[in-house]
Amino acid sequence: MKELVKSFDNLHWGLKLLLCLPVLNIAWAIYRICKGATTKNTLMLVVGILWIFIGTTVLWLVDFICTIISKRPTVIA
Predict the structure, then answer these.
(1) CA 15 → CA 7, 9, 12, 18, 37, distances in Å?
(2) What is the rounded distance in angstroms from the CA atom of residue 21 to the CA atom of residue 37?
(3) Could you tell me if residue 74 is left (phi over 0), alpha (psi between -120 and 50 degrees) or otherwise beta?
(4) What count of other Cβ atoms lies within 10 Å of the Cβ of residue 21?
(5) Is residue 35 within 8 Å of residue 41, measured between CB atoms?
(6) Burial of residue 62 (number of CB atoms within 10 Å: 0-12, 13-18, 19+)
(7) 37-64 residue pLDDT tens
(8) What is the dihedral of CA 17, 23, 25, 30, to 10 degrees?
(9) Do 73 and 16 meet the contact criterion of CB atoms below 8 Å apart?
(10) Where do the domains of the chain lie?
(11) CA neighbours within 13 Å on the CB side: how many for 9?
């Protein structure tokens, strides 16, 4: 899982932006679940699980805007 988190962190900005689109946003949900599991951050793990259900309908826009501004999607730290 650490390799997956590292590879997502090292993605090109344009590809990160592409993964923020509604159907593809599930990739960021999986990223949050893996990052929460590797860092033992329960909040991020729960947010990742919730992101699967509501991220593709509403929260993809939050990821899209945050990726444009900060070059990474919203991540609970």
Answers:
(1) 12, 11, 5, 5, 24
(2) 24
(3) beta
(4) 13
(5) yes
(6) middle
(7) 999 999 999 999 999 988 888 889 988 9
(8) -140
(9) yes
(10) 2-70
(11) 10
DSSP state of 25: T
What are the structure tokens assigned to 26, written together? 């599930």
Q: What is the pTM of this model?
A: 0.87
Instruction: Tell me the two tokens of residue 11.
Output: 């993605």
| Rg of the chain in Å (alpha carbons) | 11
- Alpha-carbon torsion (37, 39, 42, 43), positive or negative: negative
* Closest to 25 measured CA to CA, from 56, 54, 48, 68: 56
For the chain, give the number of residues: 77
Contact 48, 8 (CB under 8 A): no
How many other C-beta atoms lie within 10 A of the C-beta of residue 41?
17
